[in-house]
Amino acid sequence: MAHAFIVDYARSPFTPAYKGALSGVRPDDLAAGVISAVVGRSGLDPATLEDVILGCAFAEGEQGLNIARCASLIAGLPLSVGGSTVNRWCGSSMQAVQMAAGAIAMGAGEAFIAGGIESMTKVPMMGFNPLPNPRWDDALRAAFMNMGLTAENLADQYGISREAQDTYAAASQDKAAAAQADGRLAAEIAPVATPAGTVDKDGCVRGGTTVDKLGTLKAVFKAGGSVTAGNSSPLTDGASATLIVSEDFARRHNLAPLARVAGYAVSGCAPEIMGIGPVEATRKALARAGITAADLDVIEMNEAFAVQVLACCRDLDIDPARLNRDGGAIALGHPLGATGARLVGKAAQLLKRDGGRYGLATQCIGGGQGIALVLEAA
Amino acid sequence: MGEIRKAGVIGAGVMGSGIAAHLANAGLHVVLLDVEAATAASAVAKQVKSGGFMDAAFAERVVTGSVSDDMLLLSDADLIIEAVAERLDVKQGLYARIESVRKPGSIVSSNTSTIPLSALVDGLPEGFAADFLVTHFFNPPRTMPLLELVAGPRTRREALETIRDFGDRDLGKSVVVCRDTPGFIANRIGNYWMAAAVNEAIALGLDVEVADAAISKPFGIPKTGIFGLMDLVGIDLMSMVLRSLHGALPPSDPMQDYPVEPALLARMIGEKRLGRKSGAGFVRLSADRKSREVTDLVTGEYRPQKKVDSDALDATKGDARALMEHDGAAGRYAAAVMEKALAYAARITPEIADGPDAVDTAMRGGYGWAKGPFELIDQLGAGWLVARLEKRGVPVPDFLAKAAAAGGFYAIENGARSCLLPDGTRRKVAQADGVITLAAVQLASKAVEDWGAARLWDLGDGIACFEIRSKMNTFGAPVLDALEATLARVQQGFKGLVIGSDAPLFSAGADIRVFLETVETSGPAAFGASIDRGHRLFKAVKYAPFPVVGAAAGLAFGGGCELLLHCRAIQAHAELTIGLVEPRIGVVPGWGGCKEMLLRFAEGHASAKGPVAPALAAFGVIAPGKVSTSAFEARRLGFLRPTDGITMNRARLLADAKAKALALAEGYVPPAPPSLTLSGPSGASALRNVLETEATAGRLTAHDRVVGEALVTVLTGGPDADPVRPVGEDAVTALERAAFIALLGEPATLERIRHMLATGKPLRN
């Protein structure tokens, strides 16, 4: 079985939906930009690529028409390169990475672009035309569609306080603001040209956020609850892309990979506590990689909600010092379809930048799933 | 006449930024500069918060910058308004810089309230003076109707006419051209009135509460009265303006009779009790912020606010003349203040304005008086006032004496209002071209039909106007009867119909007292007939063989909103408060409002997004009873179609609505009945998710959920609806009817209705 390697990763700046600097940019243009960036700096002949696989949670409207194919054409990739859009909601672009790595393993191609896109400005969460099955009861429908409520459920089940959530959120903001200030995010950001000028910085980060300030926000999902806009990830616009190749391909083309895909898994859980999804998925992926959580040097776990990260870390016994070093989605933003590839790409970059052998990228998924991918430094 | 498309405002204080916001409301691109760019930017943010913009998105029309770096942004401005500190040297220095960047033919104006135009342009080049005038706005510029203009002898006539027209049509202002005299018109009279009111109250040792009550409602003056107004404007600012007027006016002017800063005001300014802006003025909140405290005019100390205690006010029941004749403290106070203020207006009008109508317009628009001073004098009796002044020893102004001899300042001549001029001649009351008011139509003609609760007027050119005259313009049976008769009558001899009037509101909707009476006497099902009648009648409006145009102004709630939704077109005043507020009283819109909102969203962009999108959009507007704060917001909420018109000047609304009706009448074809795609049970599930999400978040009461559930059924078509089988509009109105009657059977709905009738406020049960 051929091994798959992450060679490179780029993303657009992540900016707030509706008000952010990228809110006017079409999602297919945004995705094309990150594809061009990754392909361009690889020096590869783009005709050597097999496929472009993009995750997108709500692939309709401007994100419709098989946006992976659209973005591939807009990016100017040769007609011979394929394009496929995949949907596993928040896990979509990690799924794209898994599919690319899986294809390599089964000999169905050697070089792939795997990434994701979500303009939460252009297509609202749950899409334009949600038509859930009327036979579902209120609780199941809410578990599927009201993510904030699932976070509240987790806070209740795990007894995680408002203060713990706010403390976590403030730390995420601090880490992201420091990384932004030190230029540590520049390595992953591909600037985007807009009519109003070039956008090269993340727009969601709120440096100087304090626990006290976060404490003044109202719970938005449940009366008397603890989940607020401050300890949740914001609605975000953004795109991400990774270049994934086989070992042999890397050698032939003189590519210097960042990391090898060492294990992956998906798992299901109860929809009403979807935020706990990473636990089982991670356990399975670690087992398949033949390691334990203690072996992990770098952990990128999506911060859909602070409470959900805290619960997962408790169950997985994760060392906070290794978690989301440059901040997470609470600060950076969570463009649903684009997040998974960011986590994988970031973990691979960190293994290279900071050293270490094993990395983990994992996230929870609405509807009750988790997805995880283990990397080994190349 | 020149066109004003881009404007610059220099000075981002409260006035400058408010003017910039209102220019943006008028659709202009605006540049707002201050010494620091950050000041201008934060002033725009403040305007967004304080409601200076009619739609928050209009803030994007304002580009901010600094005077030092960004003057070139003004180089393509058609109008540049200076609104900086009231210092001649600062203003003139700025004019030199404006002159170096502005384009030829652009107009420059100052928002000064105290410096004469002659001083502002003194020594400046001819070309600048020719393009220069004073544009004096009132605070807040969005809502205060008055715009005073002052042109100098060197000002181009065309520049004045351009700004007069722009101020009237684009900014929606009552434009009054003033002479270049200190304080112009409104502030000259207003400040005298305020000085008199403050000093007389202090002299009488009156309670602030009594003074404010005496000087407001009986005279049609806003309920802030005098001390409330001082707190609103700022006590230090009032003092500054009065000082400036004292300096500019001759010693013989009665303004000089009152000190600029009576001891109490000097003390309050010293203690930083400046009014609302400093958190304490004549009134402040108590330490626990639960009650109010009021300054005692004798001791200067705060004491708890009292109920108004006045025999004079109780006995005279809002009759101005009776109050002034009452010998109680409030009566003596009202007489002293108003007699002097009205005499002052009559005394100075020959000097400051070209007629009493200009002065009355200015005081209505700038101080919110229901009647200007001359209209008030006519109400009180000019002869009566002369006698009162003689008794008081106040010299009787010549102009007032002439009016007393003529029987008043205003008269009706040949079907139009005329006014007396200081030279004793008369002329027609000035009215801008193309303005239609029913008041003027009534002077010139008889109603086509008069049903008491409503009247039908002939606006000329084949357009009729249906005027509702019930309390709050609500729809009871008499109004519905009249509307039905109107639809028949208009077909005989008219081409189109406007529904609207001069009233401050369009309609507060159905008469909810009738809901209650019907349910209590005959049960909820008995209300079905009324629902059917509304459906039938509003459908008749919609499919009439002539165009019906709704002239929407002020407030249009519930049934009033639903009538507008059925009109072929709406012409709305920019300040429109419209909403389907039925859920607030525990029902759903029952006269086709649900159906029309579904249709609007299905016609608009929502339709492209699948069968449930229009229902989701309509649910988002109706369930929380969303209400617009302007016509622009009403357009965004879906009440107005993109093709519906918005009129900035309330006085032009009927004329614009008539023009719209005339334009539609040419080869008019009524709309074809639509078919609706209803999303059915799957769509209901999506809407229910919204409802449950809101409920879980604690934003809904128990009965909100019941009403919301009923609305879900109406908007998605019930259990049998299927998106692949479109239905006619009657299918939705049948669901409205069923939901309405079912909700009327809910005790919680009746509690809401009773509470609304008793308190005017919604009950959250």
Automatic annotation (TrEMBL), chain A:
<dbReference type="InterPro" id="IPR020616">
    <property type="entry name" value="Thiolase_N"/>
</dbReference>
<protein>
    <recommendedName>
        <fullName>Beta-ketothiolase</fullName>
    </recommendedName>
</protein>
<dbReference type="InterPro" id="IPR020617">
    <property type="entry name" value="Thiolase_C"/>
</dbReference>
<dbReference type="GO" id="GO:0003988">
    <property type="term" value="F:acetyl-CoA C-acyltransferase activity"/>
</dbReference>
<feature type="active site" description="Proton acceptor">
    <location>
        <position position="334"/>
    </location>
</feature>
<keyword id="KW-0583">PHB biosynthesis</keyword>
<feature type="domain" description="Thiolase C-terminal">
    <location>
        <begin position="256"/>
        <end position="376"/>
    </location>
</feature>
<comment type="pathway">
    <text>Lipid metabolism.</text>
</comment>
<dbReference type="GO" id="GO:0006635">
    <property type="term" value="P:fatty acid beta-oxidation"/>
</dbReference>
<keyword id="KW-0808">Transferase</keyword>
<comment type="similarity">
    <text>Belongs to the thiolase-like superfamily. Thiolase family.</text>
</comment>
<dbReference type="InterPro" id="IPR016039">
    <property type="entry name" value="Thiolase-like"/>
</dbReference>
<feature type="domain" description="Thiolase N-terminal">
    <location>
        <begin position="5"/>
        <end position="248"/>
    </location>
</feature>
<dbReference type="InterPro" id="IPR050215">
    <property type="entry name" value="Thiolase-like_sf_Thiolase"/>
</dbReference>
<feature type="active site" description="Acyl-thioester intermediate">
    <location>
        <position position="90"/>
    </location>
</feature>
<dbReference type="GO" id="GO:0010124">
    <property type="term" value="P:phenylacetate catabolic process"/>
</dbReference>
<dbReference type="InterPro" id="IPR002155">
    <property type="entry name" value="Thiolase"/>
</dbReference>
<dbReference type="GO" id="GO:0005737">
    <property type="term" value="C:cytoplasm"/>
</dbReference>
<keyword id="KW-0012">Acyltransferase</keyword>
<dbReference type="InterPro" id="IPR020613">
    <property type="entry name" value="Thiolase_CS"/>
</dbReference>
<dbReference type="Pfam" id="PF02803">
    <property type="entry name" value="Thiolase_C"/>
</dbReference>
<dbReference type="Pfam" id="PF00108">
    <property type="entry name" value="Thiolase_N"/>
</dbReference>
TrEMBL record, chain B:
<dbReference type="Pfam" id="PF00725">
    <property type="entry name" value="3HCDH"/>
</dbReference>
<dbReference type="InterPro" id="IPR036291">
    <property type="entry name" value="NAD(P)-bd_dom_sf"/>
</dbReference>
<dbReference type="GO" id="GO:0070403">
    <property type="term" value="F:NAD+ binding"/>
</dbReference>
<dbReference type="InterPro" id="IPR006176">
    <property type="entry name" value="3-OHacyl-CoA_DH_NAD-bd"/>
</dbReference>
<keyword id="KW-0520">NAD</keyword>
<dbReference type="InterPro" id="IPR029045">
    <property type="entry name" value="ClpP/crotonase-like_dom_sf"/>
</dbReference>
<feature type="domain" description="3-hydroxyacyl-CoA dehydrogenase C-terminal">
    <location>
        <begin position="183"/>
        <end position="284"/>
    </location>
</feature>
<protein>
    <submittedName>
        <fullName>3-hydroxyacyl-CoA dehydrogenase/enoyl-CoA hydratase family protein</fullName>
    </submittedName>
</protein>
<keyword id="KW-0442">Lipid degradation</keyword>
<feature type="domain" description="3-hydroxyacyl-CoA dehydrogenase NAD binding">
    <location>
        <begin position="6"/>
        <end position="181"/>
    </location>
</feature>
<dbReference type="GO" id="GO:0006635">
    <property type="term" value="P:fatty acid beta-oxidation"/>
</dbReference>
<keyword id="KW-0276">Fatty acid metabolism</keyword>
<keyword id="KW-0443">Lipid metabolism</keyword>
<dbReference type="InterPro" id="IPR001753">
    <property type="entry name" value="Enoyl-CoA_hydra/iso"/>
</dbReference>
<dbReference type="InterPro" id="IPR006108">
    <property type="entry name" value="3HC_DH_C"/>
</dbReference>
<keyword id="KW-0560">Oxidoreductase</keyword>
<dbReference type="Pfam" id="PF00378">
    <property type="entry name" value="ECH_1"/>
</dbReference>
<dbReference type="InterPro" id="IPR008927">
    <property type="entry name" value="6-PGluconate_DH-like_C_sf"/>
</dbReference>
<dbReference type="GO" id="GO:0003857">
    <property type="term" value="F:(3S)-3-hydroxyacyl-CoA dehydrogenase (NAD+) activity"/>
</dbReference>
<dbReference type="Pfam" id="PF02737">
    <property type="entry name" value="3HCDH_N"/>
</dbReference>
<comment type="pathway">
    <text>Lipid metabolism; fatty acid beta-oxidation.</text>
</comment>
